[in-house]
Amino acid sequence: MKRDVRRYDVVLVGGGITGLMVSHKLSRLGLRLLLLEKQPTLASGPSTRNEGWLHRGSYHAGSIRDRENAVQVARRCIYGHEQIRAFAPEAVEDADRTPLVLVRDADRVQELMSRWDEAGVWYRPRTRAAAAASFPAADLSRAAAIFEVADVSLNTRMLYRKLYTSAQQGGTEVLTGARLERINGLEASVVTAGGEKLHVEAGLFVYSAGFGARDLFRDFFQLELPIRYWKSHLVVVPRLGPHGLFYVDAHEAAMMHHGGYSIVGMNEDALLCPEPDYNVIEDKAGNLHRALERLVPGWKRGATFTDVACTKVDFSPDAGAARSLNIAIHEPVPGHICILPGKMTETPFLTDVLTARLYERLEDGLIAKRPCDVLHANLTLHRREPSHAA
Length: 390
Fold this sequence. Notes:
By secondary structure, the protein is an alpha+beta fold. Helices cover about 30% and strands about 30% of the residues.
């Protein structure tokens, strides 16, 4: 008996922010999509275990050592910031309270402002007195310069719900608790949460599974992707002040607020680890506590707090290189594409680049071609035609 096969333009593997945003954008182009998430809930990994910080370039322009790379990441964050705010303005928190940036190293101030200017980062200098009035509990004595910037906090759950709803309205089929059992070319077997086995085929498979991508390509294609795991720590405490507050210097605290709570991380504390997990490393959490104590003295007295570990990934053939915050789009197997955003706020840039590439490969010819499309098609056909020697 012939088996029933479900056909899609794209099968997406991984339901975090990247998978949800790709689903939203591709479905709006009329593509038929299947989104698979092995966990029972969407966005259960780093997508919801981060600071919920919608960057606008101010931090990365200063924290990345290489100037060209720093400016590039900052510009992509600005692009993503504006796109996410336009798509889900209701998910922005504290929209009327701009955060404060602290610079500890006086020798870096001019270079930082130069990078901000080049990248298009909005900022405004603040006096120590004005900053102290904005955040009375903070110790600002170590800051050589203070600025107001345009970063905001983001309710990521609300953003993801809106992306999910948009994708569903566009016809995307979403299966949670589902896992890939077999892949053969552009066909696959999927086991649903209820134990049903589905047979699917697609024009392309796209993997936005974060740290799960390495195991998928290892299991199904016997390939070792150069994916690395980086663990960082956060502490969640009752709200410490009215405004976001963060250093751009290494090993200093950075906080954003969500309602009645503050989520605090530490700059450049990511630890390279051999395998991914969410176990808290006590001495690393202690380093974060001390950094927060330097910023908000006495925060721990009588406070209830929770330590959280978050494992993120990057794609780097050089195992000894510093952590990369750049986007990654790789097709190690024809028809099977692995994607990674450097930061959550870079996801719109990543998904727009990916969407353009996939549309070129999957479009159905309904829209008339531009002159450049005709030339591209002719050149591609010419390259494919075999040459015949006389």
